């Protein structure tokens, strides 16, 4: 193998252009590329493409674009956190409020818009440019099957997305940025919990499609994910410690992953590219409110590990995050809460204060996306 080493380039005249958009200009070598949200047409061997939608670098090698990014980044959300609906009284109210805040720096929430009706929402999933959330209990007090969506970078009201295969509330969601998966839930009219898993393509409005089944019939569970694997943890009845997983792009039934450190339901969940973190909830057989935060390594089967504590125990929290920071919003302790707490995914420690919601609430959904 031969090696060419260049210490200095002197070329003060015209540019020298090489194949694959490589240019020698003055004393610099510049590598050109195509920036677009879709794959370039008619590429040549060695061409570079910056996928501006998912923030990934590709090079065209042997007839296909291959990823050459040094490290994975979260593509199922970003720095703008949003919350949807909820009970702001503790007595069964259903708000239609959507609010937003900056995850990357401590801040209070502000008004974003409204859901189509008052609801207790659950199971939000997202890409960077769209958030889809499940209407849980609607303004009539009935379990709903509607999905709605917003564009996180543009404040405004929600729009109908399509219908899920079942009308349930207290379900959980996960997403790889392309496919959103919603699982479990409870229908109060039928007094029944379900093991159903549905999926949607986030970029395309429409009805949900059957994905498979959870390992148990369960509601009030938490969802989290990395780039390929979805995690569902805890839930009720009988307060579960079960952690189970799916491969988001492969429809099928969930598989056992391990156990939480304690049986828990009404908890929050979110993840970065390597860890899934769960917080709060009601643990043990007496439904005792817990302040525990625990985590798993999403690609490694096993039981949960202690991460730290919330500022105070709370259940029916809403949790989301960006590349680095997880946020836990609201919930119920002895009263409805408005606090936003935060932690760093890769640093096990207690949560700290991030800011406040515009109103106290619980039984609501949270997700994140691009701010612009």
Describe this structure in words.
It is built from no helices and 36 strands. By secondary structure, it is an all-beta fold. The protein has two domains: 16-67, no CATH class; 80-369, Neuraminidase (6 Propeller). The strands form ten sheets. The chain has a four-stranded mixed β-sheet with strand order 4-5-6-7, with no helix packed on it.
Shape: elongated
Mean pLDDT over the full residue set: 91
**Portion in helices:** under 10%
Unreliable residue stretches:
none
Q: Using the coordinates above, name the CATH class of the largest domain.
A: Mainly Beta
Tell me the distance between the termini. Answer: 47 Å
User: What is the beta-strand fraction?
Assistant: 35-45%
Counted beta strands: 36
Strand order of the largest sheet: 4-5-6-7
* Continuous helix count: 0
What characterizes the major β-sheet?
4 strands, mixed
> Structural class per helix/strand content?
mainly beta
CATH architecture of the largest domain: 6 Propeller
Estimate nothing, just give the exact number of structural domains. 2
CATH topology of the largest domain, what is it called?
A: Neuraminidase
**Cα-atom Rg, whole angstroms?**
22 Å
Q: State the CATH superfamily name of the largest domain.
A: Kelch-type beta propeller
């Amino acid at each position: 193998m031969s090696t060419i080493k260049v210490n200095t380039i002197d070329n003060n005249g015209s540019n020298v252009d090489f194949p694959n958009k490589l240019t020698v200009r003055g004393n610099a070598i510049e590598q050109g590329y195509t920036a677009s949200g879709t794959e370039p047409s008619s590429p040549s061997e060695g061409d570079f493409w910056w996928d501006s939608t998912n923030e990934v670098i590709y090079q065209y090698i042997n007839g296909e674009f291959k990823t050459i990014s040094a490290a994975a980044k979260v593509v199922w959300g970003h720095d703008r956190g949003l919350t949807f609906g909820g009970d702001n009284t503790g007595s069964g109210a259903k708000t239609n409020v959507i609010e937003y805040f900056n995850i990357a720096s401590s801040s209070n929430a502000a008004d974003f818009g409204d859901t189509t009706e008052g609801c207790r929402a659950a199971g939000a999933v997202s890409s960077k440019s769209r958030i889809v959330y499940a209407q849980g209990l609607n303004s009539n007090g009935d379990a709903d099957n509607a999905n709605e969506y917003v564009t996180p970078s543009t404040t405004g009201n929600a729009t109908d997305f399509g219908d899920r295969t079942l009308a349930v509330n207290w379900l959980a969601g996960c997403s790889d940025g392309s496919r959103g998966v919603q699982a479990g839930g409870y229908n109060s009219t039928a007094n029944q919990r379900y093991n159903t898993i549905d999926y949607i393509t986030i970029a395309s409005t429409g009805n949900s499609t059957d994905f498979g089944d959870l390992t148990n019939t369960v509601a009030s569970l938490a969802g989290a994910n990395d780039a390929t694997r979805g995690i569902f943890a805890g839930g009720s009845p009988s307060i579960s410690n079960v952690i189970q997983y799916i491969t988001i792009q492969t429809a099928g039934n969930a598989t056992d992953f391990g156990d939480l450190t304690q049986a828990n339901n009404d908890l929050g969940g979110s993840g970065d590219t390597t860890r899934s973190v769960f917080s709060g909830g009601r643990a043990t057989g007496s439904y005792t409110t817990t302040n525990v935060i625990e985590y798993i390594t999403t690609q490694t089967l096993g039981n949960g590990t202690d991460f730290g504590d919330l500022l105070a125990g709370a259940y029916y929290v809403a949790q989301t995050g960006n590349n680095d920071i997880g946020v836990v919003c609201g919930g119920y302790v002895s009263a409805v809460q408005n606090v936003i707490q935060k932690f760093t995914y890769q640093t096990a420690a207690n949560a700290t204060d991030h800011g406040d919601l515009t109103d106290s609430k619980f039984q609501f959904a949270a997700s994140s996306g691009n701010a612009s």
